[in-house]
């Protein structure tokens, strides 16, 4: 059964494009879209994954194929970002960050020390946090986390995250968007927390500069 016919009304925008790609390429289409989530965060996996589950419920591909393809896409995208970070390198990254107003060398040093201590947990759990799931592979590459370890952590974290959304989309059927709505709330909460942390950082740094 074609995915378009299963909908009460045609999907538009990003969802419509994702559905069309999965209709045309099957599981490979799902892998491409989820992989792009790592390179272009505006393409949210929280939207694509339930759609992949719904597509599986309509027989476009099996549930196991949906999980396999979406996890492959997640890992492939993360690997690309990892190697971009590795090519950029520590020294070049440090030099670029020091050009940003209000950023100090000590900020980079503390971040580097934190990643050296908590990098394993950061990569694993980062795959399950909106926004950070698209970014965490970069510092892993910059700090040259052993590639085998990075690959295992990324695969496990991605598989857990993808299973949650794909299986929910499979069970919800035409109501797959319900999962996307709840995920959107979580994503806004993360964005809000990041925004607050950024404001606190800027205010604190400006206050320190005035006192100095």
UniProtKB/TrEMBL annotation:
Residues 43-170 form the VTT domain. InterPro entries: DedA_domain, VTT_dom. It is found in: Cell membrane. It comes from Amycolatopsis thermalba. It is a multi-pass membrane protein. This is DedA family protein. It comes from the Bacteria. Belongs to the DedA family. The chain crosses the membrane at residues 12-36, 66-89, 150-173, 185-206. Keywords: Cell membrane, Membrane, Transmembrane, Transmembrane helix.
């Amino acid at each position: 059964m074609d995915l378009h016919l299963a909908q009460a009304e045609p999907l538009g925008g990003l969802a419509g494009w994702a559905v069309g790609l999965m209709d045309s390429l099957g599981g490979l289409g799902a892998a491409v879209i989820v992989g792009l989530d790592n390179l272009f965060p505006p393409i949210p996996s929280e939207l694509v994954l339930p759609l992949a589950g719904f597509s599986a419920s309509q027989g476009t591909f099996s549930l196991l194929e949906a999980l396999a393809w979406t996890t492959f896409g997640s890992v492939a995208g993360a690997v690309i970002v990892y190697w971009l970070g590795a090519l950029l390198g520590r020294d070049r990254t440090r030099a670029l960050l020091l050009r940003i107003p209000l950023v100090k060398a000590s900020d980079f040093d503390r971040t580097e020390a934190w990643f050296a201590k908590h990098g394993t947990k950061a990569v694993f759990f980062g795959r399950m946090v909106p926004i950070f799931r698209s970014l965490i592979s970069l510092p892993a590459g910059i700090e040259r986390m052993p590639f085998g370890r990075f690959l295992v952590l990324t695969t496990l974290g991605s598989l857990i995250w993808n299973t949650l959304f794909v299986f929910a989309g499979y069970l919800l059927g035409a109501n797959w968007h319900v999962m996307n709505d709840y995920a959107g709330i979580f994503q806004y909460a993360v964005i809000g927390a990041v925004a607050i942390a950024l404001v606190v950082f800027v205010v604190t740094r400006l206050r320190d500069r005035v006192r100095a």
